[in-house]
Amino acid sequence: MNSKKEKNKGLHSKNLHKNGYDFELLMKENEELKPFVSLNKFGNLSIDFSNSDAVFQLNKALLNSHYSISFYQIPKENLCPPIPGRVDYIHHLNDLISTKKNENIIGLDIGTGANCIYPILGCSVYNWNFIGSDISKKSIFNAEKIVKRNNVLKNKIKFRLQKDSNFIFKNIIKKDDYFDFTMCNPPFHDSKEAALAGTQRKWKNLKQETGKSDLNFGGIDNELWYEGGEKSFLHKMIKESTFYKKQVGWFTTLVSKKENVKSMKKSLEKMQVKEIKVIEMQQGNKITRIVTWRF
């Protein structure tokens, strides 16, 4: 077998996956990955990234091999996030708050999901503590199960249910809380129909065929779409952040659409925030951004 690796271009210098995946090692760590690994057209070991089962088994192997996560399970309908891009966000956050000692860091992950991926990575890599929030009881139940069954995560990650979908921080940030940062991967689409259309485009790009009801690598309503789309969600977050300016060091969020960065900066300047930073992240040809602000 050819074990040559294809590099993940543009990843953070601390990202363990910047030089690609060692599939031979990963298959040893997770035998369930083996059936999905084969030589790609470049002669490298790889998987079919349009196959959600293959992506899940790859994630399990990566979490086990590199992050000491022995148990990882998510419902089939929930999002299965790619690890390299998610851990990049964590490394950039560390750069942002690098003046503090890691053992004292506590972050808030908005919309943590059933996969709980950001708290898992932040805890494993930097020994941070987390509160994860979500509007789905089912997602929180699954995330709690992951935490309970991995000793490295116990007592490091806790969860809070957002009972009112009209709010992001309200009901979650309590009176005596202080968070060094908040983080979020907002819903991208403004409707189920838009999410389905986006999925069809992705599958077309992957030269695959799929049924009209299939979503790319899973995803439930609150993970994929929000009324008004990403822009509406981001501006709601900005507005709410003003009420918690003394309880959060840095507010941060991923922004997929480049045009939303400009409108965010305009709104943040009106709020007279102390500092705004826009951090570009790249994986292969895909570019996304982290917008950060503090009061």
Question: Can you tell me about this structure?
Answer:
With 295 residues, the chain is an alpha/beta fold. The chain is 35% helix and 18% strand. The chain has a domain at 74-190 and 217-294: 3-Layer(aba) Sandwich (Rossmann fold). The chain has helices at 23-29, 52-67, 83-96, 117-126, 137-148, 192-205, 221-224, 229-241, 258-270, and strands at 38-39, 45-46, 106-110, 129-134, 157-161, 179-184, 248-255, 275-283, 286-294. The protein has a seven-stranded mixed beta sheet with strand order 5-4-3-6-7-9-8, with helices on both faces. The longest helix is centred in the first third of the chain and has 16 residues, at 52-67. The radius of gyration is 19 Å and the shape is globular. Mean pLDDT is 86; it is low at 189-203 and 209-217.
- Major sheet characteristics: 7 strands, mixed
Can you give the mean pLDDT?
86
Assigned CATH architecture of one domain: 3-Layer(aba) Sandwich
Q: β content, as a range?
A: 15-25%
CATH class of one domain, named Alpha Beta
CATH topology (level 3) name of one domain: Rossmann fold
What is the spatial order of strands in the main beta sheet? Answer: 5-4-3-6-7-9-8
Proportion of helical residues: 25-40%
Question: What form results from the Cα inertia axes?
Answer: globular
Distance between the termini: 54 Å
What's the name of the CATH homologous superfamily of one domain? Vaccinia Virus protein VP39
Low-confidence spans: 189-203, 209-217
Structural classification = alpha/beta
- Give me the strand/helix succession: HEEHHEHEHEEHHHEHEE
Number of helices: 9
Computed Rg:
19 Å
Count of beta strands: 9
